[in-house]
Design brief:
- There is one protein chain.
- With about 150 residues, the protein is an alpha/beta fold.
- The protein has a single domain, classed as HUPs (Rossmann fold, 3-Layer(aba) Sandwich), CATH 3.40.50.
- About 45% of the residues lie in helices and about 20% in strands.
- The chain contains five helices and five strands.
- The chain has a five-stranded parallel sheet with strand order 3-2-1-4-5, sandwiched between helices.
- Helix 2 links the parallel strand 2 and strand 3.
- Helix 3 runs parallel beside helix 5.
- It is elongated and about 60 Å long.
- The chain starts with a strand and ends with a strand.
Length: about 150
């Protein structure tokens, strides 16, 4: 039934619980588990954002920022692989991905790109006050997803 499952994690405890459920679903259906972490651009390390450095020439500041972003994404990918390994051994294919963007929009975009049949994510993540004001990632994903969404507590 659910052959292509997307587990979304922000490395929180509810996301870990969601990962266990997503893996169970993938194993029961002999499907593929895609694991996604989305880096919000606001969380990226940025230097020299609006204050020019007189000692840097031309595009050097931009190149430094790009390098910092790539290093940060690599760290997130390493953590993501550890998160997947913590679930234990599995017999299904597991593919890990990191995207940069607004979390709920990237989740929906990836689900559409991969023709996902089920999205699994935690009920609460790391941004509780922001969620109260702007709506949670889980809520927005559930509203806009092209497939069923399982929200795990």
């Amino acid at each position: 039934m659910f052959q292509t499952i997307l587990w979304v994690t922000d490395f929180s405890l509810p996301a870990r619980h969601a990962g266990r459920r997503a893996l169970q679903c993938a194993e029961c259906s002999h499907g593929t588990l895609y694991v996604l972490a989305v880096v919000d651009p606001e969380d990226l390390p940025v230097i020299l954002d609006e204050m020019p450095d007189p000692f840097l020439k031309g595009d050097q500041a931009e190149a430094i920022n790009l390098q910092l972003e790539q290093e940060y994404e690599q760290k997130v990918m390493e953590e993501l692989k550890k998160e997947v390994a913590s679930l234990g051994p599995t017999q299904v294919p597991v593919v890990v991905m990191v995207r940069v963007g607004t979390p709920w929009k990237e989740v929906v975009r990836v689900a559409e790109e991969l023709d996902v049949t089920l999205i699994v994510l935690g009920a609460r993540g790391k941004r509780s006050l922001e969620n109260i004001i702007l709506g949670s990632t889980a809520e927005n994903v559930a509203r806009h997803a092209p497939c069923p969404v399982m929200i795990v507590r």
